[in-house]
Each structure stands twice: as structure tokens, then as C-alpha cells.
Amino acid sequence: MILLIGALTIGLILAIMAIGVYITFRIHNFPDITMEGSFVFGAAVAATLIAKGVDPWIASIIAAISGAIAGMVTGILHTVFKFNGLLSGILVMTALYSINLRVMNRSNLSLPRDSQTLFSQTTEIFTKIFDKNLQGEIQFLGYNISLSDFSAVAFSFILVVIIAILIYLFFKTNLGIAMRARGDNEQMVRALGINSGLMLVLGLVISNALIGFSGALFAQYQTFADVQMGIGMLVWGLASVIIGEALVRTTSLGYALIGCIMGAVLFRLLVAMALKFGLNPNDLKLITAVFVFVALALPGLFQKMQKSILARFRNA
Questions:
Q1: Beta strand 137-140 with 143-146: parallel, antiparallel or unpaired?
Q2: What is the distance between the alpha carbons of residues 106 and 269, in angstroms, rounded to a whole number?
Q3: Beta carbons of 199 and 182 less than 8 angstroms apart
Q4: What is the C-alpha to C-alpha distance for residues 88 and 77, in angstroms, rounded to an integer?
Q5: Could you tell me whether strands 224-226 and 143-146 are parallel, antiparallel, or unpaired per DSSP bridges?
Q6: Are 214 and 38 in contact (CB under 8 A)?
Q7: Whole-number pLDDT of residue 20
């Protein structure tokens, strides 16, 4: 049960990253590689500030702003300097590796034990709300779960729901609709007099702000930040989006956001199950790639099977 709760919490934290990936890859149809650097950037900034005694909320907001700046630089390289979109992201991601080392002043930064994080603050709040006779445990679905684990998954869920609702409402505004239109038909947007480049830059800013914030939460939950922790996160985010789309089977914005959350949680649970059944942790990236391959291949195979079955019935 502890493994399940931990997987749920990490899945919900990474769901925020998945929403950011959805904005760039689905709404804007832009191959943003920046996110592997901005995820670590957010984690490094938050961990460094919290280690110095800064309030975790302020540290997390600054981490989100840091991610937004990284996304803005990528957007400027592409729209102003006309760099290839993929190359723009690679350049910023590469630069962020050195910047993250500078921010942490080392390759790995652990938070002091007495550091206040968003999760420790939430645990304190839950302790005040629930009966103090619980002795640090709570009954959940017939299992005894530590109050810290329960508060972490509850806080992550509430935070993800709030962010998803805010993103949904934003993309229903005139500005949000213009951004979505830019991804659907850039030529039409330009014909209407909308600054297409600005819409893309704004989308990258919002996306990487969410990714940086997700990195900050991830570092606080794991109580450390590492310069290598962003490797493979792009595949993870894409897998969450693809699995989510397969689950909801619609391109509607609201359902797509729900799908991102469901995909991130489900993907993390699949990885946790693989580890529980004896997968070597060194093979984690390999199994991640296999999951993504299956998520990409299965929908096409199912469609071919359906067409084949329908054709046989028609010919019968």
C-alpha cells in the first residue's frame, strides 16, 4: 500500500508536467525539448531556496517563473531568430544543464531534515485537522497509512485539480482560444491579424512554468534535487499524454486535461508495478520506452483490427 500511495503522489506531481507537455505538443504542435531542462531548473531553484530557509510556496513560485523564463528563451530563439523549433529547445536544455549546476553549486542537493516543504506544511495542517490520537496514522480503504503519506497524495490531488481547472478556464478566454487556433491553423491566425509568434511564446511560457513547478514539487517530495533527474521526463510526459488520449478517446480540451492526469498516474502505477515484480531499476528507462511504444502502437493496431473485422463482415 505504501508503494501505491507513493506512486499515486508522484503520478499526480508529474501530471502537472504532463499538462505542460500537452500544451506544447498538442495545442501548439511544437516539439519542445526545453522541458527536460526546465523540470530540473524548477527543482534546483526550489531546493536551493528552501535549503536557505525561503518559504516553500515562494520557492515553488520562483521555480515556476524560472521554468517560464526558460520557455520564453526557447520561444524567442524560434520566433525572433528563426531557429528550428527542435534546435531551440536543445540549445536551451543544454544551457540549463550548466545553469542548474551553478544554481545548486553541485550535481546533487539534499534538503536539510528540518527544512519546511509544501508536503511537511500540509502534514502539519492535516495533523491539526484530524484527531491527535491517530498517532501519525489514518485509516484509508481498510489500510493504516501514515498521515504524511496521506496528506501528500491528498495535497497533490487538490493541487492538480486546481491547476487543471485554471488551465481549462484560461483556454476558454479570447487569448486562450487564439493560442489554440494558432496550433490548429497558423495561417488563419496570421490572416486575422493575431501575432502568431507571441501566441507560441506565451504557450511555451505557460507550459514550462507548469513543468518548473512540477519539478519543484518533485524535489520537495523526494527531498533532493539532482542535475540528472530530468533525463527521460520528455518521454514520461509524452507517454502520459498518449495514454490519456487513449483513455478518454476525444480531443475535447476538458477531457484531454483529465486524460493527462489519468495517463500520468496510470503510467507511474505501471512503472511501480514493474519495479515491485522484480524489475532491475537500471532497466527503468528501457521499460519506460517499451510502455511508450505500446501506447503508440496499440491504437493503430486496434484500428486495423476493427477495419479488418468490418471488411470480413461486409464481404461475408
A1: antiparallel
A2: 31
A3: yes
A4: 6
A5: unpaired
A6: no
A7: 97
Integer Rg of the chain from CA: 21
254 CA to centre of own chain: 17
295-304: b (≥16 Cβ within 10 Å) or e: beeeeeeeee
- DSSP secondary structure of 217-265: HHHHHHTEEETTTTTTHHHHHHHHHHHHHHHH----HHHHHHHHHHHHH
Domain boundaries defined on the chain: 2-283
In Å, what is the CA distance from 253 to each residue of 14, 15, 188, 224? 19, 15, 21, 34
What's the angle, vertex CA 123, arms to CA 267 and CA 164, rounded to 5?
45
Per-residue pLDDT at 134: 54
Least confident span in 98-107, 155-164, 244-253: 244-253
Which stretches within 23-106 are classed as H helix? 35-51, 56-79, 85-104
Reference 18, options 299, 295, 307, 303; nearest CA is: 295
Instruction: Confirm if 5 and 153 have CB atoms less than 8 A apart.
Output: yes
Q: Please, are residues 14 and 162 in contact by the beta-carbon 8 Å criterion? A: no
The CATH number given to 2-283 is 1.10.3470
C-alpha cell at 157: 490531488
Q: How many CB atoms lie within 10 A of CB 167?
A: 21
Summarised one tens digit per residue, pLDDT across range 175-203 is 999 999 998 888 888 888 899 999 999 99
Neighbours of 133 (CB within 10 A): 5
pLDDT at 133: 53
pLDDT of residue 120 exceeding 80, the answer is yes
Can you tell me the distance from the alpha carbon of 223 to that of 109, in angstroms, rounded to the nearest whole number?
9
**Packing angle of the helix pair 233-248, 2-22 (nearest 10 deg):** 90
